[in-house]
Amino acid sequence: MNKTTIKEIKKVKLNKPILIEGLPGIGLVGKLVADLMIDELKGERIADIYSDYFPHQVIMRKSGIIKDTKNEFYLVKRKQGDLLILVGNIQTLTSESQYEVNREIIKYFKKNKGQLIITLGGYGTGNPIEQPKIFGAATDKNVIDTYSKFGIEFGKTRGAIIGAAGLLLSLGRIEKLPGLCIMGETHGGYVDANAAKKMIEILSKMLDIKLSTKKLDKKVSENKKLLEKLREQMEKQPISGGEDLNLSYIR
Amino acid sequence: MNKTTIKEIKKVKLNKPILIEGLPGIGLVGKLVADLMIDELKGERIADIYSDYFPHQVIMRKSGIIKDTKNEFYLVKRKQGDLLILVGNIQTLTSESQYEVNREIIKYFKKNKGQLIITLGGYGTGNPIEQPKIFGAATDKNVIDTYSKFGIEFGKTRGAIIGAAGLLLSLGRIEKLPGLCIMGETHGGYVDANAAKKMIEILSKMLDIKLSTKKLDKKVSENKKLLEKLREQMEKQPISGGEDLNLSYIR
Amino acid sequence: MNKTTIKEIKKVKLNKPILIEGLPGIGLVGKLVADLMIDELKGERIADIYSDYFPHQVIMRKSGIIKDTKNEFYLVKRKQGDLLILVGNIQTLTSESQYEVNREIIKYFKKNKGQLIITLGGYGTGNPIEQPKIFGAATDKNVIDTYSKFGIEFGKTRGAIIGAAGLLLSLGRIEKLPGLCIMGETHGGYVDANAAKKMIEILSKMLDIKLSTKKLDKKVSENKKLLEKLREQMEKQPISGGEDLNLSYIR
Amino acid sequence: MNKTTIKEIKKVKLNKPILIEGLPGIGLVGKLVADLMIDELKGERIADIYSDYFPHQVIMRKSGIIKDTKNEFYLVKRKQGDLLILVGNIQTLTSESQYEVNREIIKYFKKNKGQLIITLGGYGTGNPIEQPKIFGAATDKNVIDTYSKFGIEFGKTRGAIIGAAGLLLSLGRIEKLPGLCIMGETHGGYVDANAAKKMIEILSKMLDIKLSTKKLDKKVSENKKLLEKLREQMEKQPISGGEDLNLSYIR
């Protein structure tokens, strides 16, 4: 029995949508970017994802009215293809539930004539980074050929892409949906507005949209201070081991 | 396959029932209140909830006869609408099982022409409190408008309502059932009869019932002593950090 | 989908069987007793229980041939009613799986015209005990009335009966099967042949069978030495708290 | 609902295949052997195993293209019976999922007229070993009689065979498929190319194939150095207990 449901709030006919996933992950880079996109492009909430695998709780709001635990799809209508932005405060924790939730997302996207999947994430290096690179991993060579020109570096990263950012690509590919994961290089131990800003620059070019990053700027300058602190600490600290030094244990 | 079953002990036709949930939670505030209501209003057990997600054990009783692990519904017949009180010694632990059990409860309540869901809980502050407030969170604005006049403060709390107290509201709302969670302000680290007493006062007005709190009074005075001890300790203790001071780690 | 199967090795018509459960539990009292019964009464293996919830492994044997992970039913034919003895090296660990496995056992027993369920266990007290009592807990008053005369003390124990020993009674009662759990008083921290011996005396009377306990005697004398050691330790040890003293933390 | 799928990449008619399982296990002995067999015998990938119980992630590759999380079947065509080699980087972790995945493998193998199951593993002793023995455990006596002549020692090992190496035999036997587990004696605390080499010698005779172990030789000499270090350490270390000494805790 399936324990995950996508409930449509509004019936809309989508125009060749691109899925953009920005659920919580390393450095919250993807979430910062997706939330800003919805805000700046005035995305409209069109569907909710409910799952029995999400935490068994509701959120209390200032209004006194409870908020369900869920993920949400926002729509940005565009002539050259809609943007369908997936956001939320949570991902499920187990393999079984991750597969189920992401498979439902793919089903919903496929049904709506989806064209391309872009998942957003952070690539944690454990090092404080001022000029973050934007890395990529794709479902096939065509995607790499099309998008590497925008400044995304493919094939430079190692290891695994965990959660929705990885699984949506894998499950999408089975359904012949091309996709790529864009990762902002980040320390991994704090919310990284700087990596998010860099990612927005590249996404803007890729998707041919205009996005002000003003709302991120305050956070970016806070990040800068945090970064300087981290570096100072690392200089003072007697070197006891490479791993400790670059704080990679935070991830 | 569903692993949760509600077994009716007695076929009764319910009269526009209000569901009152008092399963174990923070400070056991809800449980104290619900148990007292059943006791004072002579509630009759009409149904049991069995679930394969409850602990795999039975309880030994003085009579030598075993007691099943379950939750129970008690009925209080009233002209102006019945009270259906949900109690027990346990809640399940995982998301998946919480969703299943609470969905079954909503189904059963809906089938019995349920009108309103009131869940009872504690709002843990980590501070010893003598004059506890009663906070609320609701499924919609109508509910707030109707019940705030009884002294329930809506919109003053933050964070999540975990377990049945939250999920019954969320799953009920999907079925168009209005509801609210009433939370007694409490320390969170001990059973709080004082918060329970305050909650009973407000519930009595809300539901237009008379409830003696005599049986709680002994516990209340015990609570008072505990409270004084806690305060003394906090005064003596050299301040090492706000978090430690208000004992919020107990929750 | 059900992940537990009972496979019959041999089609036998059972004669009003009594189920005797002796799976691993506190002090292994039940297991010692059940294994001895099979041995002494020349029980024949008639069915195996397989479950996907048992450990995912096979056992290596001296013969070089692997043994499956399973529980087993042994049959002792008797004019006055057969004995169906349930043994094995494992119980499953989660609530969900315990309910499933024990429900399958009840189904199988019911189908075979089962009359009574006797589950065997230990009641851990944390104290070294030389003259163990045999405690009981039953599904209803009739059972208590019938069996208390054999020296089983009902209603003297508190807490929960965990696993098959408890759940078989609870799930059996739903199917109108009477049952009782017999618990040998035991320390709880070691395999207790002494409690097993006492339990066999009582079971022999209850079931009108003859059982030599010779094979347990060596273990009983080993137990005695262990017991003396424990007592010495406890006398030497400066008393720091009741709980520590009676070693109840071992359970 | 089944959460495991075997996807055929290529429809091939198999000729009386022998299944050879080399998934990760103790000392990675089985994996080293199976990977080498595929390499040396030019095995062709014919099917993939996907499971919702595998980690919810994808692997990043140098090409920039993601790799799914899965297990794989490779085929080596032979007149005297094909070899179907099962490899991968992971096994699932829970009983339930192990049973499901291995049952799917047996189903697939049965459908393809499978004749024999050979699972490869390590038998961890906690001792550094230079001349490893090859142990065996089988589904029945026929298998022992047929294969003991190749230098496999049956009935010399104790304990459990965990995971696919054990479960494939157990689940295969239910379907009348004979099988054996071949275990290279190994320390258990490191990747053991030496045990793998010995296992290949024996497998070559058993299966009448020729396998160069050249590619393992570098690893074997690295192993030798590691072994010497371990022995030195053990000599220096004051003896504090047998268990510590032979490092069996590493397993």
CATH topology of chain A: Rossmann fold
| Number of helices in the DSSP assignment of chain A | 7
Poorly predicted runs of chain A: 238-251
Strand content of chain A: 15-25%
Helix- and strand-based class of chain A? alpha/beta
Major beta-sheet overview of chain A: 9 strands, mixed
Rounded to an integer in angstroms, the radius of gyration calculated over CA atoms of chain A is: 18 Å
Largest two-chain interface? A-D, 31 and 19 residues
What's the mean pLDDT score of chain A?
90
CATH superfamily caption of chain A: PAC-like subunit
Going across the major beta sheet of chain A, what is the strand order?
Answer: 1-3-5-6-2-7-11-8-9
Gross morphology of chain A: globular
Oligomer kind? homotetramer
Helix content of chain A: 25-40%
Number of strands of chain A: 11
Order of H and E elements of chain A: EEHEEEEHEEHEEHEHHH
* Domain module tally of chain A: 1
First CA to last CA of chain A: what distance? 34 Å
Question: What labels would you give this structure?
Answer:
homotetramer; 251 residues; alpha/beta; Rossmann fold; nine-stranded mixed sheet; 7 helices; 35% helix; globular
Model description:
Four copies of one chain form a homotetramer. Residues about 240-250 of chain A have low confidence and may be disordered. The two termini of chain A are about 35 Å apart. In chain A, helix 1 (about 30-40) crosses helix 5 (about 195-205). In chain A, about 35% of the residues lie in helices and about 25% in strands. Chain A is globular, with a radius of gyration of 18 Å. The first copy, chain A, is α/β, with parallel strands linked by helices and about 250 residues long. A nine-stranded mixed beta sheet of chain A has the order 1-3-5-6-2-7-11-8-9, with helices on both faces. Chain A has a single domain (about 5-250), classed as 3-Layer(aba) Sandwich (Rossmann fold), CATH 3.40.50. Chain A has helices at about 30-40, 95-110, 140-145, 165-175, 195-205, 215-235, 240-245, and strands spanning about 5-10, 20, 45-50, 55-60, 70-75, 85-90, 115-125, 135-140, 155, 160, 180-185. Chain A has seven helices and eleven strands. The interface of A and D includes residues 95, 137, 162 and 169 of A.
